[in-house]
Amino acid sequence: EGNIQTRRRRTFKLLDNLCSVFSDEVVQTAIPIIQAKLTITNESLTATAIDSQYNQELSLEENVSLIKESGAMIVGALACGSIAALASLVQFMPQLQTFLHDPLPETRAASCWAMASYVDWLVEEMKKEDDATAQIGCENLRHLITCLLGAMSDTNPNVQWAACTAMERAVKGATHILLGHSGTALLPHIT
């Protein structure tokens, strides 16, 4: 278990580093892979899987969740590597948000971490002179914070930790914006 986690972390760090140097090339190559991982279902895994593609010791649902988790981790690693990459990766935000309800806590935690990668890009979007773009960035940031607040009350401590860490990144990255919008985004979760 420990060796697998170490290898996975190193793999995602490598993706992060590659994206820092070869942003466009890596992101454009990774998008179809990410799309396949984030949209996998029990049926599609059963129809296409060969023995080496999934862990026989886990249930089908657990295998699907782990594949989704790897997709979320890829999105997060690429997003950390380059803020320019986020414009291409933002299309995956709705899927990451739905993963907060995944049965596997690893997938929920990975989703929190990946969503936190979007904060800097959303803040940049909000600073644009185009009012429509700035408004969309503001709404997306508000929705991201609302999702993270919900994940902070998850029953799994690892998901809570990931959500708190992601919220910390959001607060650090968007403090001045959050001060202006905190009442509307935070109030429903406090009461």
How does this model look, in words?
The chain has 10 helices and no strands. The chain is mainly α. Helix 2 packs antiparallel against helix 4. The N and C termini lie far apart (40 Å).
Mean residue pLDDT: 77
Radius of gyration of CA atoms, rounded to a whole number = 17 Å
- Kindly name the structural category: mainly alpha
Sheet with the most strands, sense and barrel status: none
Please give the count of helices: 10
Helix content: over 70%
What letter string, H or E per element, gives the SSE order?
HHHHHHHHHH
Low-confidence stretches: none
| Number of E strands | 0
Global shape: globular
Oligomeric nature of the chains? single chain
Measured by DSSP, the beta-strand proportion falls in under 5%
List the helices and strands and how they pair.
Layout: H1 2-21, H2 23-38, H3 42-48, H4 60-81, H5 86-89, H6 93-98, H7 105-116, H8 119-126, H9 131-151, H10 157-190
Helix pairs in contact: 1-2, 1-4, 2-4, 4-7, 7-10, 8-9, 9-10
Task: Produce a short descriptive summary.
The chain is mostly helical and 191 residues long. It is built from ten helices and no strands.
Salient structural properties:
0% strand, mainly alpha, 191 residues, globular
